[in-house]
Amino acid sequence: MAGQLIGLLLLGLLAAGQAAQYLSGTEAGRMHGIASEQMLQRYASAYRSLLVCSAGCDAERLVAALQARDARFELLERLPPLPQSSEDAVLLAALRQKIGGPADLPLLLRVRTEDAQLSPLREETLLFTRAMTLKIAARLPDGRWLAAQQWPVVRDLWHSLGYSLLASGLSVLVVVVLFVRRLLRPLRALARASEQISRGERAETLPVRGPREFRELAMAFNLMQERLTRFVADRTRMLAALSHDFRTPITSLRLRVEMVEDAGLRRAMTRTLEEMRQMVEATLLFARDESFASARETIDLAVLLDCVQQEHGALGHEVSWRGESSLPYRCNPLGLKRVLGNLVDNAVRYGQRARIALLREADGVHIHVDDDGPGLAEEWLEKVFEPFVRPDAGQDRASGGVGLGLAITRAGVVAHGGRLRLENRADGGLRAHIVLPL
Fold it and tell me: What Pfam families does the record tag this protein with (predicted)?
């Protein structure tokens, strides 16, 4: 935004300069009036000098004495073609008047733009000017021609605008840069706060200051954050109350089930009540997600993976990891450890072992959790993240699950501003792929 504002300002200054040049009648691409007057007067003086001394002086020595840094004179026996232009006709009339010769005096003149490297004034050419060559030739009484090349100052857009644009632009730019930095400071604070919220962190209340529009934006953001916090807190309290209320009748029903004489029916009813209890507990944990709301801190992800490997190794699980030996990262340690623990549990349970890879890429931190299991059908790779959805309900019940593990795991990754997906590996097995922003 700052670059766009500065660019628009410079375009405005340039347009204002062009308008001023148009209104003042300055025509770009022509010789400056004072410069053309000086060039013509110099040639007329040189021509008259040769006329005066043509009878008793060395014309070649006089021509040599007329040489200057911005003008070259020479005597020619024959004159090469010298095309004329509309501007030349005006200058020819002025030159003829200055020379004061006869009306039929052969006189040729041409103005043409010249490449800068062909001008002898190249190193001394002022900034924002353009090189131009003025060629003049007039016949002397002895039949020879006095030819001259001169390099006058040219009227140009940059000649009329350059210095004023440079002086005014620099001074205005300093003011604009300071103003824009002050103007955009609240937007940068808003961007940082939004990034914190996207990572699941609690952002500080934005100060209400600056222009009216920014004050309204800050107040709207603070109100949005307050409402979101209140909504999550109300939902957590509601689910906690529901969980507590459900525990009491479930416990009462379990006591009554024990009085059922039919052993088969009693086991079926007990199993159903246990599933209900697990669903209530898992639902409360999924909605509240207390660990993901904890404060962030910078940890070493390599140390965290070591901890996960050791804990599962102590349980007899085959878990290994490779990758970065050290990778500091700001996160919620408990939440991220819980995410990795859930994925490793699934890999060990359904794929015999878990192999973890920790990689640092340009787009963020990549964590792979691979197993050697049968994988999943393509239609289940995304569906398994839905709450209470299980590709093999019978197997999951036997292991004590209710279909919320991967939903909670993805919620933990999203709380860190990342993304999680499952993919079948080409050489067999399933891969859980986590990408966390740097």
Answer: HAMP, HATPase_c, HisKA
